[in-house]
Amino acid sequence: xxxxxxxxxxxxxxxxxxxxxxxxxxxxxxxxxxxxxxxxxxxxxxxxxxxxxxxxxxxxxxxxxxxxxxxxxxxxxxxxxxxxxxxxxxxxxxxxxxxxxxxxxxxxxxxxxxxxxxxxxxxxxxxxxxxxxxxxxxxxxxxxxxxxxxxxxxxxxxxxxxxxxxxxx
Length: 169
Fold this sequence. Notes:
Elements lengths: L3 H5 L9 E7 L8 E6 L2 E3 L5 E8 L2 E9 L4 E7 L5 H14 L14 E8 L6 E15 L13 E7 L2 E6 L1
Antiparallel strand pairs: 1-2, 1-7, 3-6, 4-5, 6-9, 7-8, 8-9, 8-10
């Protein structure tokens, strides 16, 4: 178990959290990158375990159970004026849900690998990454178009995944 001295010896905390998302293709493109860009927000999901309570002679013992993690990941993407990123995810979801395009029968044909690459404050040095396996989009969020402010167009994509592997560099 880590002590406070171990934490203090790590060094200065990271000043700016910069990151990018890379999607490595599914069945059609092998393991080639199909999307690589900086994003506005990534919510790396919690990791949790169910607990099992056992009562014996008026004492309660708690044991670890199965994995209870939500296995969903939400990413807020920026989009261009030509809506390339939004159309990419719209087409992906349509392909999954359309039975005539082979959706639903073989996850290997539509699932991908998603990597969240964390970068140092210099925007180039990798500091760690999370690799999400067998990822596919389950929800494409709304796009709010308004004249109130001159903001970039953003939208959320919620993904389902099998495994979250954290790696340090």
